[in-house]
Amino acid sequence: MKRLAVDVAIIGAGSAGMTAYRAALAHTDKVVVIESGDYGTTCARVGCMPSKLLIAAADAAHAVAGAGLFGIRVDGYAVDGKAVMRRVRDERDRFVRFVVDAVESWPARHKLHGRARFVAPHRLQVGDHTEVEAARVVIATGSSPVLPPGWRERLGDRLIVNDDVFSWQDLPRSVAVTGAGVIGLELSQALSRLGVQVRLLGRNGRIGPLTDPAVMEAAHAVFTGELGFSPDTTQVQAKREDNGVRVDYTENGIQYSEHVDFMLVAAGRRANLHDLDLQNAGLGLDEVGVPRVDRQTGRIGESHVFMAGDAGTDTPLLHEAADEGYLAGDNAGRYPQVQPHPRRAPLGIMFTDPQIAMVGVGHAALTDQGVRFETGFVDFEDQGRSRVMAQNRGRLAVYGEAGTGRFLGAEMIGPAAEHIGHLLAWALQQHQTVLQMLASPFYHPTVEEGLRTALRDLEKRLRPVMAMPDDCMGCTPGT
Ligand SMILES: Cc1cc2nc3c(=O)[nH]c(=O)nc-3n(C[C@H](O)[C@H](O)[C@H](O)COP(=O)(O)OP(=O)(O)OC[C@H]3O[C@@H](n4cnc5c(N)ncnc54)[C@H](O)[C@@H]3O)c2cc1C
Ligand SMILES: NC(=O)c1ccc[n+]([C@@H]2O[C@H](COP(=O)([O-])OP(=O)(O)OC[C@H]3O[C@@H](n4cnc5c(N)ncnc54)[C@H](O)[C@@H]3O)[C@@H](O)[C@H]2O)c1
Fold it and tell me: Are 105 and 87 in contact (CB under 8 A)?
C-alpha cells in the first residue's frame, strides 16, 4: 500500500473537482485529485454537451419539417440516424478531449486513479493501492440516475440512462421515457423530432422544474401537442419481452400497454455519496445520512471537509458546480481561514423548444414562504417577433414583491427563454425593482418586448397608482 500526505485531497475530477483543484492550488502544491472513472466530466461526456448536440440535430429536422409554413417547399427529407449519432459522438469527443487535455497537463503527483473512501476523518483509501492522509478533503463526486427498484434486473440492457443514449450508433424505433423532468423532456422531444416513437411517462402532472399553474398549463399544451406525453401516469410496470420492453401504465383510470425498443429512465439523480463510507469521516450527518453544506463556504459544519457540485447541492447545474468547486477548493486551500463567497442569482434553462427558464424564486416557493407578491404575465401567441418567426408558443410569469416593487423571480416556457432568463437573472442579482427594469431599453421588434409586456402587467398590479401607460399595439405592432 502506497502512502501519501497532502494538504487537500479532492475526490472526483468532474467540473466541480477540476475547479476545486485550480482554486486549492493557489494556496498549496500539496494537492491530489482522486478519480475512479474516465476523465472528461459528466457535462462533456454524457450530460450538457451531447444532449445539446442531439437537440441541435432535432432542431434542424424540425426546421425542415416546418419550412412549408413560410412557403419553403422541401421535398423528401430523411433523418439519417447513423449520421446524426456520428456527429453527436464526434463533437462530444472533441469537447471531452479539451477536458482530458487539461487533466493530462496536471503534474502526475496531483492525480490518483481509483475509488476513494474514508477510513478515518483525515484518511482516505484509494482502490486497494494507496492511503492518502489529507488535512482537508473536498467531496466532488457528482450524481447518478435513480432507477426504480428491480428494473435493472428485469430489463437488463433494455433499460438505459442518459449515458447510453450518447453512445448509440443509430437511432432506435421507439423508447419509453420515465420522468418528465429536465432530462426526460429534453431527450424525449429531441428523439421524437428525429423520428423515434416516444412515450413520455410523467407523474402528478409535473413538467420539468415548473411550479406556476399558468405556465405549466402552457407547457402541457406544448408537449402534449407534440409528443406522446402522458403527464400523470400511475402503476407503471415494465417487463422484458422479445427485442424490447412491454410497458403497462394507467392514466385517468384507463390502462395502456405498449411495446418499445428501450426504457429510458430519467427519474432524477442521487448524489454519489453511498460508497464514500462517510460514517468514518467524523461529520455531522442529517436524518437521511447526508452532510449539511454551507452554500457560501462549501464547508460541512465546522469540519475539515468541503463539498461541491452535484454531490452536495439542490441545484445540480454546471455553472453552480463550477462555482461550488471554486469556493470549496479555495476554502480547503486557505483553511482554517475559511471565507464566505457570494452566490449568483438562481437561473435554470431547459433546452426544449420552446425553452423553459426558471429565475430566482419560483411560484411554489414564494407561496410556501408566505411572500406577498404579484404576478405579471405575457402570452406569446400574439407577441410580434415571436409570431414573425412562428415561435409564438408559451407564457412568461414574472413575480414582484408587494410594497417594495422588487423583482423576485420568473417562470417561463417560450421563445428565447435562454436569453430572457439571463436578462432577468442579471436584474435580480442587481436587486432591481420592476420599475427600474422597465426603464431599460427594449428594441423593436424583439421577443424582449414580450418581457416588457409581462413587466408592465406586473407593475400595474404592484402599484396601481404609478402604473405605466397601457401597451399601444398600434404604436409598436405586436409588442
Ligand atoms: C443528460 C444531462 C444533461 C445536462 N445538461 C445540463 C445543461 O444543459 N446545463 C447545465 O447547467 N447542467 C446540465 N447538466 C448537469 C451538469 O452536467 C452537472 O450539474 C455537472 O456536470 C456536475 O458536475 P460535478 O463535478 O458535480 O459531477 P461530475 O462531472 O459527475 O464529476 C464527479 C466525478 O466524481 C467521480 N467519483 C464519484 N465517486 C468517486 C469516488 N468515490 N472516488 C473517486 N471518484 C469518484 C466520478 O467518476 C466523476 O468523474 C446535465 C446533466 C445531465 C445528466
Ligand atoms: N438544461 C439543463 O440545465 C439540464 C439538462 C438536463 C439535466 N439537468 C440537471 O440534471 C438534473 C437531473 O435531471 P432529471 O431529469 O433526472 O431529474 P429531475 O429532478 O429534473 O426530474 C425527474 C422527474 O422524474 C419524476 N419521477 C421520479 N420518479 C418517477 C417515476 N418512478 N415515474 C415517473 N416519474 C418519476 C419526478 O417527479 C421528476 O419530475 C436536473 O435537476 C438538472 O439540474 C440540467
Answer: no
Q: Is 332 helix (H, G, I), strand (E, B) or coil?
A: helix
Distance in angstroms (rounded) separating the CA atoms of residues 209 and 62 = 24
Please choose, from the candidates 414, 411, 310, 441, the residue with its C-alpha nearest in 3D space to the C-alpha of residue 354: 414
DSSP-H helix ranges across 273-362: 318-334
Query: 296-326 as b/e, with b when 16 or more CB fall inside 10 Å?
Result: ebbbbeeebbbbbbbbbbeebbbebbbbbbb
Q: State the DSSP code for 291.
A: B
Find residue 229's DSSP bridge partners: 200
Q: Which of 230, 270, 273, 274 is nearest to 253 (CA)?
A: 230
Say which residue the cell 459528466 belongs to. Answer: 42
The pLDDT tens digits for 354-389 are 999 999 999 999 999 999 999 999 999 999 999 999
Name 357's bridge partners.
349, 412
* 169: its cell numbers: 450508433
Distance CA 70, CA 119 (A): 65
**Structural domains of the chain, ranges and CATH numbers in brackets:** 2-145+270-334 (3.50.50.60), 151-267 (3.50.50.60), 347-462 (3.30.390.30)
Q: Looking at the CA of residue 181, tell me the nearest atom of ligand 2.
A: 21
How far away, in angstroms, is 269 Cα from ligand 2 center?
7
Its pTM stands at: 0.96
Provide residues with CB under 6 Å of ligand 1: 11-17, 34-37, 41-43, 47-48, 51, 115-116, 140-142, 162, 183, 272, 275-276, 309-311, 316-319, 321
- ipTM for the predicted complex: 0.98
Hey, what's the cell of 113? Answer: 486513479
SS3 263: strand
How close is the Cα of 272 to the center of ligand 1, in Å?
A: 10
